[in-house]
Design brief:
Blueprint (H helix, E strand, L loop, with lengths): L4 H9 L5 E9 L2 E12 L3 E6 L8 E5 H5 L3 E6 L6 E3 L1
Antiparallel strand pairs: 1-2, 1-5, 2-3, 3-4, 5-6
Length: about 90
């Protein structure tokens, strides 16, 4: 199923404040896995506030194009139901 950047932004707008797990391409066959809360969305990027105990820095930002091209894979964790993957 092909999505657009607008669809990805709308999905993330609806999930602001929810827990998110990120799998990002770190280059040279490295995959970075982080978790935190979706803090804010902007026209071109979204910001995730990371868990302080596990990470050296507080926030990371990614573009919607990163999600579209599978450079970043997001999973939104709902309390009531199972995890929902964005894309």
């Amino acid at each position: 199923m092909a999505k657009t950047l607008v669809d990805i932004k709308r999905t993330l707008d609806a999930n602001i404040g929810k827990r998110i797990t990120i799998k990002a391409n770190g280059g040279r066959r490295k995959t970075i896995e982080r978790s935190g809360f979706l803090e804010e969305t902007y026209p071109s990027v979204f910001i995730i506030k990371l868990d302080e105990e596990e990470n050296a820095f507080e926030r990371v930002s990614y573009s919607y194009a990163d999600v579209l091209t599978d450079t970043v894979q997001l999973t939104v964790c709902d309390e009531e139901s199972a995890a929902v993957e964005v894309k």
